[in-house]
Amino acid sequence: MVQADLLNGLAGEDGDRVLALGRHILLASGAELFHLGDEAECIYVIAQGRLRLTLPMQVRGQEQNVMVEERVPGQTVGWSALIPPYRFTLTATAPLETEVIALPRERLRKHFAAYPEAGYLVSLNLASVIGERLQLFQAMWVREVQRMVEMRSA
Amino acid sequence: MEMLLMGACLSMFGLAVMCLAFGAATRDERPDESAGLEKPMEAVKTAAPERFFVDPLLIPVAAHTRVPIEALLLQLENHVRLEQAAAESYMRAPNAALLHSRTMSTLVN
Fold first, then answer.
1. Hey, is the C-beta of A117 within 8 angstroms of any chain B C-beta?
2. Burial, B71: exposed, middle or buried (Cβ in 10 Å; 0-12, 13-18, 19+)?
3. CA atoms within 13 A on the CB side of A119
4. Which residues of A touch B91 (CB under 8 A)?
């Protein structure tokens, strides 16, 4: 059973009920799970393997997908599916054979209406995932700005 | 006594040979006395690009254009991983020193 960060604090059977809403998807090595700008209908829990999250960058005049994050089993990707305007803001690719559980937004919404306590805990976990990511990128951004300042004042 | 004289002669001869060798080795590097002080400086500057290792600014530019794009992308990935690890360690124990800890990334060093 997957130890999903999204299901922290939920009792075993409550977590199982949430995961049972999803469907398992097996991605071959190199396969793309979702693309930047696509409509986001599902969030994904990584069951096994790995996902690379990339953003486009101009490198020597060519557009290249540059990795900005790597996610491992138990972690959640694609939370754009729960936040308007429901569009992916990154591209997710599997660098090796990877299995994910796709949880559709509409099924989650209905389930949490029936089980509000589970909905509350999942919302807290989601806030935690988003908050950690925000802090992480704040720190990374400040480090880059610091380097820029050092270069300019050198 | 004879041995001592012979040793002294050999020493003097050796010293003379060393002086000649030193003079010959350093003669070409002396600035032309007929020229002013600034002219030899200019000559050194113009000669530098031919000896590419003399001007450190020339190395990165030339080297970067030779780095294949795949290698550059790997460098970028490695940089992101290192930065993420640094940010995570900052988040475990937030303080200014950890926030601005030095990176080993080859992209910025």
1. no
2. exposed
3. 13
4. 132, 135-136, 139
Q: Inspect the interface and report whether the beta carbons of B83 and A142 lie closer than 8 Å.
A: no
| CB-CB under 8 Å, A70 with B90 | no
The superfamily CATH assigns to domain A5-153 is Jelly Rolls (2.60.120.10)
**For chain B, what's the residue count?**
109
Higher-scoring residue by pLDDT: B21, A136: A136
CB contact under 8 A, A143 and B86: yes
Run of H or E including B90 = helix B69-92
pLDDT at B51 over 70: no
Q: How confident is the model at residue B2 (pLDDT cuts 50, 70, 90)?
A: low
For residues A66 and B71, give the distance between their C-alpha atoms in angstroms, rounded to a whole number. Answer: 12
| Domain boundaries along the sequence of chain A | 5-153
Given A57, A62, A146, which is nearest B100 (Cβ)?
Answer: A146
pLDDT at residue B33, as a whole number: 43
pLDDT bracket for residue A98 (50, 70, 90): very high
Cβ(B31)–Cβ(B40) below 8 Å: yes
Model pTM? 0.69
Q: Are A99 and A45 in contact (CB under 8 A)?
A: no
**Is residue B79 within 8 angstroms of chain A, CB to CB?**
no
Contact B100 A66 (CB under 8 A): no
